[in-house]
Design goal:
By secondary structure, the protein is an alpha+beta fold. It has helices at residues 2-24, 53-64, 87-90, 97-103, 160-167, 194-224, and strands at residues 32-38, 41-47, 72-77, 81-84, 120-123, 136-139, 152-158, 171-174, 177-180, 184-193. Residues 41-191 form the PPIase cyclophilin-type domain.
Length: 226
C-alpha cells in the first residue's frame, strides 16, 4: 500500500512538472530574421508564426517591401517599451502604392498567453482590439499588464546593447507617452533565413570535403602509378 501511494505521488509530481514546463516554454521562433539598422546600432528580431500568423505575415511583408526604411522610434520609455511609429505616418521617405496599401491594413488582435517580457515584440493598437496596423513595441522590461491585451508576434534575437543605448537617450513626456527628443531613425532594413544560411554552410562544408577527397584520391593514384 505504501509503495502504491509513493508511485501515485511520483506520477503526480511528474505530471505537474510537465505542465509547468509546458506553460513556461517559449514559443518556437520561425527561421526568418529581420534586422533594423538604426542610428544607434542594429536590432535583429525573429517571429512567432504559430502564435500570431496574420500579424507575422503582415509585418514581414512590410519589411520585404521596405516599408520600415526611414521610419523611426517615436516612443522610448526606459524599462517599458521602444515603439516603432506607424509606417504610413512615420517614414521620412515617400511611400509607393504597394507599401501604403499594406501599411494601412488593420490586423485582427491575435492575443495569446505569451508573456510580455524584455525583448518581446508586441503590436500597437487603438482602443479597438482589431485596430493594429504597423506600429509595434520592443519591450524594454517586463509588462504583465499588457498580457493578453496586445498581440505578441516575435522577439529580439540580437541587439540588446542597442536597446540599452536607446534607453539612455534624452526624452520628454507628452501625455501618456515618453518620447525621445531626437529622431531615432531606422536607416534601412534587411532580412534573411537562418535555415537557408544553415543549408549554404552545409553545402560549403560538403564541397570542401569533396574537394579534399578528390585531392586525396589523386595523391593515392599518383603514388600507385608513378
Amino acid at each position: 500500500m505504501g509503495n502504491t501511494r509513493i508511485l501515485i505521488l511520483s506520477l503526480a509530481c511528474v505530471a505537474f512538472l510537465s505542465v509547468v514546463k509546458a506553460l513556461s516554454q517559449e514559443p518556437e521562433l520561425g527561421s526568418a530574421r529581420v534586422v533594423f539598422q538604426t542610428s544607434y546600432g542594429d536590432i535583429e528580431f525573429g517571429f512567432y508564426p504559430t502564435v500570431a500568423p496574420k500579424t507575422v505575415d503582415h509585418i514581414f511583408k512590410l519589411v520585404r517591401l521596405g516599408g520600415y526604411n526611414t521610419n523611426h522610434f517615436f516612443r522610448v520609455d526606459k524599462g517599458f517599451v521602444a515603439q516603432v511609429a506607424d509606417v504610413a505616418n512615420g517614414r521620412s521617405a515617400p511611400m509607393n502604392e504597394e507599401q501604403r496599401k499594406e501599411a494601412e491594413k488593420t490586423i485582427v488582435g491575435e492575443f495569446s498567453d505569451v508573456k510580455h517580457v524584455r525583448g518581446i515584440l508586441s503590436m500597437g493598437r487603438y482602443e479597438d482590439p482589431n485596430s493594429a496596423q504597423s506600429s509595434f513595441s520592443m519591450l524594454l522590461g517586463d509588462a504583465p499588464h499588457l498580457n493578453r491585451q496586445y498581440a505578441v508576434f516575435g522577439k529580439v534575437t540580437k541587439g540588446d546593447e542597442t536597446l540599452r543605448k536607446l534607453e539612455e537617450v534624452p526624452t520628454r513626456r507628452e501625455g501618456i507617452f515618453v518620447m525621445p527628443t531626437e529622431r531615432i531613425t531606422i536607416l534601412s532594413t534587411y532580412y534573411y533565413d537562418t535555415e537557408m544560411d544553415s543549408c549554404e554552410e552545409e553545402r560549403s562544408v560538403l564541397k570542401r570535403r569533396l574537394q579534399a577527397s578528390f585531392v586525396e584520391v589523386e595523391r593515392q593514384r599518383m603514388n600507385c602509378f608513378p
